[in-house]
């Protein structure tokens, strides 16, 4: 009786939590917004109804025979062996069904792999645990991380996921593309296998280290489309979402112009206030360090060292700058960080109360330049 009550209570809590999350559980494959996704949906429905018809025919015949030819009505089982006509019928009919199913399936597969005549190309690199995007036609390049609100709600003990819009499905830098253009994607990975999946586009593609996979899309309608990595790529696999923002061509052209201008801006080496350093440093830490060193700097015992009271972190600054830029076998080289970002990160990890450090210094961007250039 006690176990029954516990089970009932557990089911009640589960139901209430699902209602709170307002989750949707569609019973069928989603149609998506691209021509390819609609073709896949139509293929799915065709195969489904063929299977339903076969199931009704087979089980209907079985149940009819069992009921109307049962022993209680005086029927006796017929004895026959190697009926040539029956053998031919149940070989030819399934073969014809399989051929009928294979034709549209083959067309869909060929359509998925047809990247010819693409109007632009985007290289997608999966990394633990974020996506790196490079527009091969105009030189735009940026990283796309889980948004800070989701990161904090996930990491903090008192975090409230229900207060975060699109929790775990939002990013700091979405992939922006134009509508009504055939876009070719080139997929690879820098560490382990990832998989890029946006349901509205109708497909997913693996990103493998040392290999190149291709796929394409043609988005007819402006909007925001969300997805996730669907390969178990490590302990934070569930925290590298994908957001694709499709824009009308004039809006996309304006975004390209603005992004290129910002990308080409020189690094501002002017001194920053302590508040700005700590704020920017916290943001850089959440994007690049929190997965391994944790939000409180405790690290992971036996795997990733703690930052709290670490002699390397609170020691002389020049060796620390070189160490972070060079990386190790377990930590990637953070030479990608600009001088102002690295300066802010150093100030944060050496002085953040939440990390348990309080050196009391402020590392300005100008301090980074000589070591960085070496």
Characteristic key phrases:
alpha+beta, 374 residues, five-stranded mixed beta sheet, Immunoglobulin-like, Cytochrome Bc1 Complex, Chain D, domain 2, Helix Hairpins, 11 helices, 3 domains
Walk me through this protein's architecture:
The chain has 374 residues and is of the alpha+beta class. The chain folds into three domains: 35-112, Helix Hairpins, CATH 1.10.287.90; 120-263, Immunoglobulin-like; 274-373, Cytochrome c-like domain (Cytochrome Bc1 Complex, Chain D, domain 2, Orthogonal Bundle). Helix content is 43%, strand content 16%. It is built from eleven helices and ten strands. It has helices at residues 2-21, 35-68, 84-112, 148-155, 249-263, 274-288, 290-293, 311-314, 317-326, 339-351, 365-373, and strands at 120-127, 130-135, 141-144, 175-178, 182-189, 194-198, 203-207, 213-218, 223-229, 241-247. The strands form two sheets. The protein has a five-stranded mixed β-sheet with strand order 3-2-1-5-8, with no helix packed on it. α6 (274-288) crosses α10 and α10 (339-351) crosses α11. The relative contact order is 0.09. The model is unreliable at 5-23 (pLDDT under 50).
């Amino acid at each position: 009786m006690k176990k029954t009550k516990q089970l009932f209570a557990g089911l009640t809590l589960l139901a209430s939590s699902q209602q709170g999350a307002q989750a949707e559980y569609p019973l069928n494959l989603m149609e998506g917004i691209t021509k390819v996704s609609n073709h896949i949906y139509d293929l799915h429905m065709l195969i489904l109804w063929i299977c339903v018809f076969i199931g009704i025919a087979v089980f209907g015949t079985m149940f009819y025979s069992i009921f109307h030819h049962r022993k209680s009505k005086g029927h006796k089982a017929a004895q026959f062996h190697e009926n040539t006509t029956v053998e031919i019928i149940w070989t030819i009919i399934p073969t014809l069904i399989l051929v009928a199913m294979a034709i549209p399936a083959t067309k869909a597969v060929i359509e998925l792999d047809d990247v010819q005549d693409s109007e632009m190309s985007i290289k997608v690199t999966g990394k633990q645990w974020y996506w790196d995007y490079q527009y091969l036609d105009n030189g735009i390049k940026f990283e796309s991380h889980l948004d800070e609100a989701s990161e904090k709600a996930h990491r903090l003990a008192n975090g409230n996921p229900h207060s975060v819009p699109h929790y775990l499905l939002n990013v700091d830098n979405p992939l922006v593309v134009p509508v009504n253009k055939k876009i070719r994607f080139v997929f690879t990975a820098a560490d382990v296998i990832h998989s890029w999946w946006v349901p509205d586009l109708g497909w997913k593609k693996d990103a493998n280290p040392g290999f190149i996979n291709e796929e394409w899309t043609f988005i007819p309608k402006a909007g925001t489309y969300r997805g996730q990595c669907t390969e178990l790529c490590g302990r934070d696999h569930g925290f590298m979402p994908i957001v694709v923002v499709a824009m009308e061509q004039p809006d996309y052209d304006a975004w390209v112009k603005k992004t290129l201008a910002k990308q080409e801006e020189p690094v501002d080496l002017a001194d920053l206030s302590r508040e700005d350093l700590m704020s920017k440093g916290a943001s850089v830490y959440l994007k690049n360090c929190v997965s391994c060193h944790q939000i409180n700097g405790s690290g992971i015992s036996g795997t990733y060292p703690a930052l709290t009271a670490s002699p390397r972190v609170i020691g002389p600054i020049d060796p620390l700058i070189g160490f972070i830029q060079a990386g190790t076998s377990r930590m990637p080289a953070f030479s990608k960080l600009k001088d102002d970002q690295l300066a802010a990160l150093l100030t944060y990890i050496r002085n953040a109360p939440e990390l348990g450090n309080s050196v009391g210094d402020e590392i300005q961007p100008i301090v980074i330049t000589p070591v960085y250039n070496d």
